[in-house]
Design brief:
heterodimer; A: mainly beta; seven-stranded mixed sheet; four-stranded antiparallel sheet; 11 strands; 0% helix; B: mainly beta; globular
């Protein structure tokens, strides 16, 4: 595998289910991101991990719970979601070198989530 | 506050022609980076080009160039010799140097290349 991979690619779940999205980066990067992409809205940053430490939590509801066990893996645990949470969830990674660092992000293909 | 504006929801261009996708930004930070990404229908965001706020020259990457006008706070993407495979959503993004990890994205422009 190369780049950033995400599983599953598609997920349909009921509001009472618990599921997890997985992201893996094979680039040796030190920062990983979760984004939500809804139709006709800008990409919304949800969480950022740098060196496995959460550094951004963008007012995301507690029904979304991130986990970063190591620098290559990132999870998004989902529980009791709402229909408005249906969206494309994108994972990204970058090599972050601190202040003034502007390295590009590499994105995975996303998980298309539908909440019934 | 940081903000990215893309005013063109959709654009058409004839194959082999050049096209400019507009992006304006707002920031009070003197140091920042600007990015363009392409998102085909498959969903994956693909990095195209980067411009730093202190870069003296406009960035170029193959058929992509960035028309950076700092005083106007604009960072337009120019695609030369359009190809059918260029049909996709294009997003402009910015990151400030203020110590956060936030990349702010615009709403995107959907480009359709016509044969």
């Amino acid at each position: 595998e190369t780049g950033v991979t995400q599983t599953p690619r598609h997920l349909v779940m009921g509001m009472t289910n618990k599921k997890s999205l997985k992201c893996e980066q094979h680039l040796g990067h030190n920062a990983m991101y979760w984004y939500k992409q809804s139709a006709k809205k800008p990409l919304e940053l949800m969480f950022v991990y740098s060196l496995e430490e959460r550094v951004e939590n963008n007012s995301v509801p507690s029904r979304f719970s991130p986990e970063c066990p190591n620098s290559s893996h990132l999870f998004l645990h989902l529980h009791t979601l709402q229909p408005e949470d249906s969206a494309l969830y994108l994972c990204a990674s970058s090599q972050d070198q601190g202040l003034g660092s502007y390295n590009e992000q590499f994105f995975g293909p996303g998980t298309r989530l539908t909440v019934l | 506050a940081q903000k990215i504006t893309q005013t063109q929801p959709g654009m058409f261009v004839q194959e082999k022609e050049a096209v400019t996708l507009d992006c304006t930004y707002d920031t009070s930070d003197p140091s920042y980076g600007l990015f363009w990404y392409k998102q085909p229908s498959s969903g994956e965001m693909i990095f195209l080009i980067y411009q730093g706020s202190y870069d003296q020259q406009n960035a170029t990457e193959g058929r992509y160039s960035l028309n950076f006008q700092k005083a106007r706070k604009s960072a337009n993407l120019v695609i030369s010799a359009s190809q059918l495979g260029d049909s996709a959503m294009y997003f402009c993004a910015m990151r400030e140097a203020s110590g956060t990890y936030k990349y702010i994205f615009g709403t995107g422009t959907r480009l359709k290349v016509l044969a």
